[in-house]
Amino acid sequence: MILVTGGAGFIGANFVLDWLAQHDEPVLNLDKLTYAGNLESLATLKGDARHVFVQGDIGNSELVSGLLVQYQPRAVVNFAAESHVDRSIHGPEDFIQTNIVGTFRLLESVRAYWGSLGQTEQATFRFLHVSTDEVYGSLAPLAPAFTEQHRYEPNSPYSASKAASDHLVRAYHHTYGLPVLTTNCSNNYGPFHFPEKLIPLMIVNALAGKPLPVYGDGMQIRDWLFVKDHASAIRRVLADGKVGEVYNVGGWNEKPNVEIVHTICDLLDQLRPRSDGKSYKAQITFVKDRPGHDRRYAIDAGKLERELGWKPAETFDTGIRKTVQWYLDNPDWVAHVQSGAYRDWISTQYQ
Ligand code: NAD
Ligand code: DAU
């Protein structure tokens, strides 16, 4: 089996669902269930013996070491993190604790476990660390996209904490020989995305008749990847990535924020028109900018394509349409997130 950390979060849950849809190798899912962890996203796996869920912290060495010995995973895929830039600006402490200290403790537990394995198991074991393009900082308007050689220049407490974790992972390979892989991915979107992030926030606010808050001039650029394509990239890297290497993952979809918001409004105008006949664009409100806001991210995913043959399956047009439709089709998931009821899921479903 594989151990997935943070598998109740947005990307982790999509990855677990995707993994178990592809084959039968079981998943041990370790997640602390912070506000961002939502077991309702994994509701279709209820009763599925291939999915073992454990609520816990990657920084709890005793728990993690015990799980490793008990379940003997052949790989660890580390999604667990505090992930929201705005929250890191308001309160960086949790980001330091989970993203840096937590990753360090996880690496220590994994190193001890890996050291106890036989030669063959040691050689095939992998620790895949899921990271972000934000570690590379902000690009000038015409600068080439980030390659794996781009220097680290993180600008927010979130990206600095992810950068630190990337360095620790790298050092555990260089110093101890731990067979690690690192992926640095651009902005994801898709089903089960917590509505604090741009795309889901715009969809749920639009439907609720609330303002659509665009930071600053809305011309900041992000490079969007449909979440299932991120899951397939991780599977690809886990299967055939070269130990110690870093792979950038991206969708070749650079777009300014305001264009994203317009696209969402256009889709909703089509799929769920407002009762007054006006466009959802009427709800767009320009608000104060995010402090230290990175102007542009763009990922060069050429290495992953050349070396491992991975390409995204979705264009932005197909992915965003599926995403908007998913939010329209899943009002209960949205309502439970908004009311906080999703946090009761573990007690109602698992006890
Ligand atoms: P998320 O915030 O939706 O989910 C994070 C999950 O980790 C939650 O389920 C949470 O409960 C869990 N978690 C937090 N602290 C934990 C801890 N100490 N121990 C165990 N579990 C803990 O995040 P996401 O958007 O799914 O991102 C997953 C990973 O991918 C993160 O490492 C993030 O940095 C990276 N990433 C995200 C994006 C993106 O666009 N969302 C892009 C590139 C990389
Ligand atoms: O690039 C990868 C990163 O993408 C991940 O590492 C992070 O975990 C993930 O949260 C995401 O970070 P961003 O800061 O780019 O995502 P967010 O959805 O918060 O914001 C996207 C852009 O939209 C950004 O330029 C800020 C802007 N924005 C965001 C919100 C929430 C708005 O204009 N209004 C908003 O209300």
SSE topology:
Elements lengths: L1 E4 L4 H13 L4 E5 L19 E5 L5 H11 L3 E4 L6 H6 L2 H23 L3 H6 L1 E7 L24 H20 L3 E6 L1 E3 L8 H10 L4 E4 L5 E6 H14 L5 E4 L4 E3 H15 L12 E4 L14 H7 L7 H14 L1 H9 L5 H6 L1
Parallel strand pairs: 1-2, 1-4, 2-3, 4-5, 5-6, 6-10, 7-9, 8-12
Antiparallel strand pairs: 9-11
Key terms:
351 residues, alpha/beta, Rossmann fold, seven-stranded parallel sheet, three-stranded mixed sheet, 13 helices, globular, binds nicotinamide-adenine-dinucleotide, binds 2'deoxy-thymidine-5'-diphospho-alpha-D-glucose
Q: Can you describe what's shown?
A:
By secondary structure, the protein is α/β, with parallel strands linked by helices. The protein has a domain at 2-190 and 224-252 and 292-315: NAD(P)-binding Rossmann-like Domain (Rossmann fold). Helix content is 44%, strand content 16%. The protein is built from 13 helices and 12 strands. The protein has helices spanning 10-22, 61-71, 85-90, 93-115, 119-124, 157-176, 198-207, 227-240, 257-271, 302-308, 316-329, 331-339, 345-350, and strands at residues 2-5, 27-31, 51-55, 75-78, 126-132, 180-185, 187-189, 212-215, 221-226, 246-249, 254-256, 284-287. The protein has a 7-stranded parallel β-sheet, with helices on both faces. α6 (157-176) links the parallel β5 and β6. α4 (93-115) packs parallel to α6. The longest helix is centred in the first third of the chain and has 23 residues, at 93-115. It is globular. The two termini are 24 Å apart. The model has no long low-confidence stretch (mean pLDDT 97). The structure holds nicotinamide-adenine-dinucleotide and 2'deoxy-thymidine-5'-diphospho-alpha-D-glucose. Nicotinamide-adenine-dinucleotide (NAD) binds at residues 5-6, 8-12, 30-34, 36-37, 57-59, 79-83, 98, 102, 130, 132, 162, 185, 187-188, 194.
